[in-house]
Write the structure tokens for this entry.
Amino acid sequence: MTDDRPGRYRSFDLLSHGARAAEVSGFDGVVLPFDPAGEEPLVAAASLAGVTSRLQVTAGVPTSLATPVYVAKLAVTFQRWSGDRLGWWIDADGPGAGPAYGDHLEGADRHERDLEFLRVARAVFSTSPLDHRGRFFTVEGGGFAPPLSGRPFPAVAVAGASERAVELAAAVGDRLVAPGLRSGDEVADLARRLRERAAAAGRRADLALELAVVAREDRDEAVAAAGGADAAPGAGAAPGSDIANGAGAAGQTNAAAGAADARARRNGVSANGAGGDPGAPGVLVGSYREVAARLVELRRAGAAAVVLRLDPVVEELYRFGHFVRPWLEDEVARHVA
Amino acid sequence: MSLDPTPDPTSPAPGRPPTGPTSAAAAPTRDEAATIDVYWRLPSHGDPTSPRDAALVRGDWTPTTAASLAPGLRHGAPDGVSYVDHLGDIARAAEISGFVGGLIPSFPMTDDPWVITAALADRTTTFRFMVAFQPGFLNPVHTAHLSSSLQRLSRGRLVFNVITGGGGPDQAWWGDPVPHDERYARTQEFLATLRGVWDGGPFDLDGRHYRVRGGGLAAPLRGEPFPEIYLSGSSDAAIEAAGRHADYYLSWLEPFDALREKFDRVRARAEAIGRRPRFAVRLDVLARPRHDEAWAEARRGFDAADPTADRRWARAARTGDSVGASRQRAFRPEAPRRAEDLLVAPNVWAGFHLLRPGPAIGLVGDYAAVAERLDELIALGVDAFILAGVPHLEEAYRVGEEVLPLIRGRARVPSASLAPT
């Protein structure tokens, strides 16, 4: 038996509790970014898909992981087994796996590889025979045959807000996930740029925001809780609070959970925090109704979804499901009517 | 099953392979040498219903019809059963009936073994997942990370079957243009990197294929047991790589003398660098209560096989640069007219390629005869088996319940008299 840590939990226990809580509390998905100190995201994603039935599971895929053909192969089995619930999280602005992982590409070179990787992987799903000779990858007579062919490609979320991130999401992604809280105007501007770039490529991609949320019955309580969280050891700038993804375009709430919350830290188990911007994302603090109102405002400005970081994840997912989500549903119902 | 004639409370528990970065280099202890690990196979590419008919009707590799299962049809519509879940049923059957684990093959048309392992780890308790993979397609440091997470998820039940590739169209499909001998050099670099980062490093490599600076798994991930490595390949380059890195040198079944000669070559190469690999054989078994029943089954399979199947198989064995495949072809009698024409030694039948895709040579016979042949293989130095038979679910029970208990393993005398000393 593998006893990971002196604590009572295995990281997989915490991850699966988070995913179950996300499904129960109405979220659409969970995100497991690549983190050298976390569980490998595709392994973690498979373990989470096994304990949930509806949740989308988005796994961090560094493009240094394997050839795009190989990663497409991993993905197609995941899709066949899970009912097409896999997503890929491509970190466009973060540092990448780096030389310790044998990856020496940076900047424009890494961006080019990201583009080629996603183009080839998509083509493996859709085209047979596939022939490709690019800067980084070569395939001859490739592509899936039945029964592997014909599955939907994983939904690709590109994390970042740089020009390169926007281009990657527009050219080969389905969604851009920008870190941090932004004003309505900033969201509208980013969404418009993304839409235009995608349209120029004959594609569609939508915008999501990644936010930490602290919601309580009233504002004072929320502010106190947020301060308390900041004061906790390991919180704040440490990459690796939980992530949840919420408030979709149709008013559904999406969520994702890593395992780096207070419980994970107390028990010393590994984290699956977000890569990307080194700073903590903007924190949305307020009463349930204020938080919901702000999420609605962001959606109207053009954010089709949010990826929420909640800490500790199980308790905060349930809290969000009970107390914030009804306001969102109510808003959507009125909006649709 | 682990066949251990001297039950010893201090020997490693099943499910936790007795291995580490240095265990293969050291001379095996008495317990390790005495243990025979018997694996089953998870058919990651569909499964026929019997040896009589090569048509795949489990899984969706052929069109789903009223006869199909996993997935099948229910009221005319797909029933939503996932083939990976069926593989989970086979893994459970193998676990229950005494196998230590299963090999999960990887080819362009198969489901992927890493994801199968991650999906099925929680459904089994002792079953070891032997993941087949080709180093060339994966980054070795990411592979270490992935493998450590699988060890943590499965509590130490990951085993590697490292394939270096048969060349030909399959290699190009995967996107691998590297030629044969160079691929083995890459495999060696890959495995050196995997081991180098496993316990935290720092590991640096300036190799032909990989460059790593300050590599090493992060604190929560290091310290897991390093997976046992089954390495195959019949060429000189493969035997060189196996000598350096394999815990087990894995071969398809060949006529016993040819196998003995091959093992001698690997042993000599390994001993020259101070290592002592163990040996494993992968083979199909067609076992029935009586000899004539087993043969009736083989004959029906032979007679029902597509008459062009043998020629197509031989041609496929030529298109790659696999030395193992061309050896299988050479051992197979040409232009067989009857099933018996493919019998190359007692119970050793070179016709399995007609019953299902894969190598030609396996065992046909009654339970006792099949167990005797397996014992002969153990006597010539085999330490582990990967067995298979179609359909894999029912045959896991049959072989596990009927054949495995008859294998005597290393014990040449009743095990009761082999008291621990």
About this structure: DSSP finds ten helices and eleven strands in chain A. The first helix of chain A runs from residue 11 to 24. Chain A touches chain B through 57 residues (CB under 8 Å).
